[in-house]
């Protein structure tokens, strides 16, 4: 088989600051959203769907796993050396906004925070690993949440602009690839993560989420403009949580329903950020749900001018759905709803495993937008067993990744332009939705357990050697 992956394909791995760094009050960093999210699956999942979270910590009752995370803050050299050993061409990471602006609304940045990322980028450069930087990954400064109500407040656009101006200027010679808001379209499902607010009640959830999204669209467009000005040749992408929606059966009513759900979930944000316009279909949805977006003069023109250079996406699962569901059919563990797909198996966390869904996702996205795509998250969260000799034989992870990489190859054969692939959680990290360490994604095992115990030592899993060879053969040997 001749090689389907183009030369220069950006193989690598992905993380987010709050899930790896730790050092939560070191180097002048201020607290952010992730610092007040308790550990434990039930606690976290409840928060994500709940209303009225107060953003206070209760250390008697809960643990806070992101405080230490996996201590990348102190161990980044060792970790980057391991990424280099695997042959990474790129490393996706985020900058924690509250390391740069501890409260978020200051006028002057925190030099220690800036210097930390200088060191990380310099370390990556030693090994020719290209950084791919997410500007906002579920880590809004806590002060902006408590004082301003998160992204519902227009003020955040201004604070964000200050933040991106500082980081673009500081890192202009070190970082070429940027992403604005992680999984921006997840906002209406989980406003807590992306928008930094917990709805007061179900009635205000949609209105506030779409208003917050509008502010992020404006902020993202502004960032694209600034990035292009400050860093000539930079590539700035949006980031979508993409889950193709399948109709449960061929009943046209269900097909239509699935189509509409997909437009709303998968395409609304992309339409705004890639095409630079609110799509026509959203008018009806806004009317029917009584959603009124406050816009300022110039917002729509800015959105039109600040369209992204490429689309990045996370892909974990597809969604199967039908118009009329019984309560028993609902949910089924997939984070984004839907009903159980009888053809698919699920992970231990109930996430349905569907490599073909990635092929479909890439074809849908490329067909609609015709801009380069970048898969910046994909992977299997699983319980790993450490053998007596210290090895981790994670064949299940290899199987999962192999099939998804194959699916990307098939999409490339179908004409999709794909820039790269960064496997999520290339080193074990704190799970976003459950706060657990035991939901592991890594090629590199980290000896830290759910209760926070462990040596934090790193070791290579079987998948480490497998992925190294995948990269070395540019995806030819899977
Ligand atoms: C995405 C997030 C990541 C990440 C991943 C896996 O939604 O962008 O931050 O954590 O999902 O999810 P989880 O950690 O819940 O398994």
UniProtKB/TrEMBL annotation:
Origin species: Paraliobacillus ryukyuensis
Protein origin, superkingdom: Bacteria
PROSITE patterns attached to this UniProt entry: GLYCOSYL_HYDROL_F1_1, GLYCOSYL_HYDROL_F1_2
Active site: 377
InterPro entries the record matches: GH, GH_1_N_CS, Glyco_hydro_1, Glyco_hydro_1_AS
Pfam families assigned: Glyco_hydro_1
Family: Belongs to the glycosyl hydrolase 1 family.
GO annotation (BP), single: carbohydrate catabolic process
Record GO terms (molecular function): beta-glucosidase activity
Descriptive protein name: 6-phospho-beta-glucosidase
GO cellular component assignments: cytosol
Record's keyword terms, sorted: Glycosidase, Hydrolase
Classification lineage: Bacteria, Bacillati, Bacillota, Bacilli, Bacillales
KW Hydrolase (keyword) present: yes
């Amino acid at each position: 088989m001749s090689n389907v992956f183009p030369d220069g394909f950006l193989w690598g791995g992905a993380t987010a600051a709050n899930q790896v760094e730790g050092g939560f009050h070191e180097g002048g960093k201020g607290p952010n959203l992730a610092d007040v999210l308790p550990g434990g699956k039930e606690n976290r999942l409840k928060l994500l769907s709940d209303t009225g979270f107060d953003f206070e910590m209760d250390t008697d009752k809960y643990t806070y796993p992101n405080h230490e995370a996996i201590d990348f803050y102190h161990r980044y050299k060792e970790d980057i050396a391991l990424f280099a050993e695997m042959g990474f061409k790129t490393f996706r990471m985020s900058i924690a906004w509250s390391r740069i602006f501890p409260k978020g609304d200051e006028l002057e940045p925190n030099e220690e925070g800036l210097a930390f990322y200088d060191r990380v980028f310099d370390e990556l450069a030693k090994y020719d690993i290209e950084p791919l930087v997410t500007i906002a990954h579920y880590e809004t400064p806590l002060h902006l949440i408590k004082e301003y109500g998160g992204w519902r407040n227009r003020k955040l656009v201004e604070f964000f602009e200050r933040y991106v101006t500082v980081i673009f200027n500081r890192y202009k010679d070190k970082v070429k690839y940027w992403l604005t808001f992680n999984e921006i379209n997840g906002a209406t499902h989980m406003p807590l993560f992306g928008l930094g607010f917990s709805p007061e009640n179900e009635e205000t959830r949609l209105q506030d989420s779409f208003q917050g999204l509008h502010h992020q669209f404006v902020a993202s467009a502004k960032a694209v403009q600034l990035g292009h000005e400050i860093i000539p040749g930079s590539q700035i992408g949006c980031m979508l949580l993409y889950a193709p929606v399948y109709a449960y059966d061929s009943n046209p009513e269900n097909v239509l329903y699935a189509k509409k759900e997909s437009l709303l979930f998968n395409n609304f944000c992309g339409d705004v950020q890639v095409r630079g316009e609110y799509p026509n279909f959203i008018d009806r949805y806004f009317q029917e749900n009584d959603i009124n977006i406050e816009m300022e003069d110039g917002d729509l023109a800015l959105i039109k001018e600040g369209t992204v250079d490429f689309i990045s996406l996370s892909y974990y699962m597809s969604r199967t759905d039908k118009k009329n569901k019984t309560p028993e059919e609902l949910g089924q563990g997939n984070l984004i709803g839907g009903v159980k797909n009888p053809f698919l198996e699920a992970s231990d966390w109930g996430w349905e495993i569907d490599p073909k869904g990635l092929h479909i996702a890439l074809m849908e996205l490329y067909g609609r937008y015709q801009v380069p795509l970048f898969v910046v998250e994909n992977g299997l969260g699983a319980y790993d067993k450490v053998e007596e000799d210290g090895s981790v034989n994670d064949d299940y992870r290899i199987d999962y990744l192999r099939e998804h990489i194959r699916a990307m190859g098939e999409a490339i054969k179908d004409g999709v332009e794909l820039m790269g692939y960064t496997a999520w959680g290339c080193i074990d990290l704190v799970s976003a939705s459950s706060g657990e360490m035991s939901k592991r994604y890594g090629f590199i095992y980290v000896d830290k357990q759910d209760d926070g115990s462990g040596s934090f030592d790193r070791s290579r899993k079987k998948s480490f050697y497998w992925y190294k060879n995948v990269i070395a053969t540019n995806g030819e040997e899977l």
